[in-house]
Amino acid sequence: MSMAGNLRRVTSLGKGGRLRRAARLARRRPRVDLSHPARSPLGSSVVNCVTYRDGVRIPESVGLVDAVERVRSRRDGFVWLGLHEPTDEEFAGIAELFDLHPLAVEDAVEAHQRPKLERYGETLFAVFKTICYVEHEELTATSEVVTTGEIMVFTGRDFVVTVRHGRHGSLGPLREELESDPRQLAKGPSAVLHAVADHVVDDFLTAIDAVQADVDSVETAVFAEDGARLDPGRIYQLKRELLELKRAVVPLGRPLEELATRPIRVVDPEIQAYFRDVSDHLARATEQIAAFDELLNSILQAHLAQVTVAQNEDMRKITAWAAIVAVPTMVCGVYGMNFDHMPELGWRYGYGLVLGVIAAACVTLYRGFRRNGWL
């Protein structure tokens, strides 16, 4: 049975002999390494389960229960279990095995949480919002700019359980990067917690750099010659997506500050310095988002001002042409009243004179409006 199948069995078994039975069943076939797929091809939420000792991965084909028992009996190393969108049934046995708090388990399964850090006895529960930039050829009023997901991390003395929600943010490359640095990984589960936090914040910065290009393109379009014709829905959509980014980034500041400054039993003191570095990167991301928000407000105001100016120019043109057309309309209206005794009705050149006066008046008005910039 694969590791994924064994973990499904863990959810329905209690402690003691039944758990050991599940571990023995797991030895019949080699463990399946599913680090990279977003979801296990076996239909389980299990992505990977690995034991580390002195920062080195232990290549042994044992079940989750046996791995935990060995780590706890030797008091050396830790187990890293990775899950993707587990159900209540899939997570039940795991929660019992690691003695996870029901409230934290509920948050991990249901997702849709804001970034936070909570302590439940000897276990830390951290929630991170993940961000992925959505590539698009041109920003429109309906373009999706960023998509979000979540990573929950349970950190104990001898275990790390990561629960991921969403189709992006795979931790497989992160696991490989950590395994290439045994000295850092030897610091224990808190090293994994730091790596996840650093990975999430780096993704923030990557997404923000991509959003910068969208903001620049909108700014260029607004101040172009025909900027007044720009669809304001593009600006509103970008502000809306920026708000989604802000919801993921800004609330994470307080949890990172707590990890960086307050002594926590399951966090290695040496790791706290690394959390301070992550907190600095997050501060940079927060400042950039605030700058984007202010810039988009200015761009929107500038666009509305351009629209107003364009409307005023159109109204001036319409008014000028209306004034020019009013001259022949008035003269023709007067001479269309069919009275017998009207000036120049009997004169041979009266018709031509009236037309000349109308033309001269219209040309004079046209030149005056052109000189004043109305036409």
UniProtKB/TrEMBL annotation:
Reactions listed under catalytic activity: Mg(2+)(in) = Mg(2+)(out)
Q: SUPFAM superfamilies from the xrefs? A: CorA soluble domain-like, Magnesium transport protein CorA, transmembrane region
Q: Name one Pfam family in it.
A: CorA
Location within or outside the cell: Cell membrane
GO molecular function terms noted in the UniProt entry? cobalt ion binding; cobalt ion transmembrane transporter activity; magnesium ion binding; magnesium ion transmembrane transporter activity
Question: Any keyword Signal?
Answer: no
* InterPro entries, sorted: CorA_cytoplasmic_dom, CorA_TM1_TM2, MgTranspt_CorA/ZnTranspt_ZntB
Listed GO CC annotations: plasma membrane
**Keyword terms, alphabetized:** Cell membrane, Ion transport, Magnesium, Membrane, Transmembrane, Transmembrane helix, Transport
Q: How does it sit in the membrane?
A: Multi-pass membrane protein
Transmembrane portions of the chain = 318-337, 349-369
Q: What does this protein do?
A: Mediates influx of magnesium ions. Alternates between open and closed states. Activated by low cytoplasmic Mg(2+) levels. Inactive when cytoplasmic Mg(2+) levels are high.
Tell me the protein family, please. Answer: Belongs to the CorA metal ion transporter (MIT) (TC 1.A.35) family.
Protein name, as recorded: Magnesium transporter CorA
Q: Which organism is it from?
A: Streptomyces griseoviridis
